[in-house]
Amino acid sequence: MEHFTIATVAEENPDFRRVLWTGQHVQLVIMTIPPNGEIGEEVHENTDQILTFVSGVGEATVGGRTRKVTQGDLVAVPAGTKHNFVNTGPNPLVLYTVYGPPEHADGAVHKTKEQAEEAEASGEDEPPAM
After folding, report:
1. Does the pLDDT value for residue 70 go beyond 80?
2. Which of 26, 29, 97, 117 would suit a FRET pair with 3, their CA atoms being 20 to 30 Å apart?
């Protein structure tokens, strides 16, 4: 059994992206987006994503619609939908996200967005074969 006090674990995370757990069908990831930072516009063709915001404020753009997000908000992103999340506040935007199926390499830790993008471009950040 894996057990996380997820809000605390997410708040203590200094990294842009950290994979906490990878199962056969889903993956749990925590993220910290710095002030003025963003996840970056992307589309996961075959992966649904649910993001829950722990602290900070930002904007969620999903499928061309934009809404403000803050602590306690949850946003669902269906597979194949263009999306981005931007930190609009003075403090980090902290969240945890569940991907189904997994989207990233098991155990991946990316300290910055740039490091995450490099890992994706090089193929280092491929999810495990299921």
Report:
1. yes
2. 117
